[in-house]
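Entry for the shared binder. Reason: the reviewer on the internal report wants the predicted structure included alongside the sequence.
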Amino acid sequence: NLEIRAYDCPALLRHELHRLFLNYNVLMQPLTAITIVLKSKSDMSTWSNEIEEERNELTDEFVHLAHEICAYLGTKQYWADFIDPTSGR
């Protein structure tokens, strides 16, 4: 139910990320984009109370996992941050 992949960050994405991550030179420094996919049980294109609850649970799980990944990479002397899916920041 979990898929994690790493990619060399393309130039177009670097320019978008430049506005978000002011403490790291994303334009000139090495940059890898990591995607995290959490598979849902429900069809997320519709809405119901149950789907909203699952969406919130998956969002919380993502944020927790992203914090863990960033902390781990930090211990290995890498800069790492993530984009919160609830705010886009």
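Summary line for the report: Helices lie at 11-18, 49-75.
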